[in-house]
Design brief:
It is built from ten helices and 15 strands. By secondary structure, the chain is an alpha/beta fold. The longest helix has 20 residues.
């Protein structure tokens, strides 16, 4: 059996833990090691799994690892991805792909020029309701897509997410990219115009926006609108909030991506909670990356996909600055 040797670079983003769990369960993967400049951030994981530790990611890239999973701060994605590409390693990069058009183009070019694949981590494509919706759309069940209304409302993150020099932006960037990728995937069209609103409304003293609303026009004539705000308070029953209403020329389709849940009311929690029983989207994401590399096929969510969704968010900030729509 062929084994794919994979290394993890940075646990700055919490998704690194679920990606590592998925990789650890795969008999086609050998985890070569973990790199993080903060040993304390990965100490428990390293000790639990008995994995080699590399303070510098360059030392991990110098091994015979085949691919790396990058979950660093947004502002470091480009630097690490380009270094990995030059070392001949395939890359699965956490979203957003980058924080500027120039650096994302450089990431894509570096991977292409060095013969390695770049995949953007958009696990929402692997949610059951999203997959079924895509199949229905492709069968023409709702006709031509006319408009899409979506939500990806989050709760306030912490740490580097609130530092613009590391995150590249607030809620508008953080929560546009997931659902915008789905909109791009469903419409198979590119965004041509963006009009956005962003502000700090829910939490005082932030250096980044925590409220956002983004409106887009697609080249094929469809419209989209998305609420990206960090507006969920601690009483909300779960972290997941990805919803879409897709209006077509022949019908309407609604998605509640995390609706595979049980309602739990306990005195221990002091509130109602939703316990998700559906399949893990992160497991499917990682498996699709591994399978593509082992089979020598194209990764299903490319660097170009990551770029297309991220430039919409970046254009959103430009629209907020100018107070008018921005053309891509």
């Amino acid at each position: 059996m062929n084994l794919l040797k994979i290394g993890m670079i940075s646990f700055a983003h919490g998704h690194a833990h679920s990606y590592l769990n998925a990789l650890s369960a795969m008999d086609t993967v050998e985890i070569v090691g973990i790199s993080d400049e903060l040993h304390s951030r990965v100490e428990k994981v390293i000790n639990k799994l008995g994995l080699p530790y590399y303070e510098k990611y360059q030392d991990l890239l110098a091994t015979d690892v085949d691919a790396v999973v990058i979950c660093a701060e947004n502002a470091r994605h480009a630097e690490i991805t380009i270094a990995a590409a030059k070392a001949g390693k395939h890359v699965l990069c956490e979203k957003p792909l980058g924080i500027s058009l120039t650096e994302m183009e450089a990431m894509i070019a570096a991977c292409r020029d060095n013969g390695v694949q770049l995949m953007t981590a958009f696990p929402c494509r692997y949610l059951a309701s999203v997959i079924k919706a895509k199949e229905a759309i492709d069968r023409g069940e709702i006709g031509e897509i006319l408009a899409i209304k979506g939500t990806n409302r989050g709760s306030l993150p912490s740490g580097w997410f609130l530092q613009p020099e590391l995150s590249g932006g607030g809620a508008l960037l953080d929560h546009t990219v997931h659902v915008m990728d789905l909109m791009n995937w469903f419409t198979q069209s590119e965004v041509k115009e963006v009009y956005a609103y962003a502000a700090t409304l829910f939490h005082e003293g932030l250096d980044v926006d925590d409220a956002g609303m983004i409106h887009v026009k697609f080249a094929n004539g469809a419209f989209g609108v998305l609420d990206t705000s960090w507006s969920r308070n601690p009483a909300f029953p779960t972290w997941g909030d990805v919803t879409m209403t897709i209006i077509g020329s022949k019908g309407t389709l609604s998605i509640d991506a995390f609706a595979q849940k049980n309602d739990l009311y306990s005195q221990e929690n002091g509130k109602g909670v939703w316990t998700f029983w559906g399949d893990s989207m992160d497991n499917y994401l990682v498996k699709s990356f591994v399978d593509a590399l082992l089979n020598g096929t194209q990764v299903p969510i490319t660097g170009e996909d990551g770029l297309r969704s991220t430039i919409v968010a970046l254009a959103g900030y430009k629209s907020v600055e100018l107070g008018q729509p921005v053309t891509l």
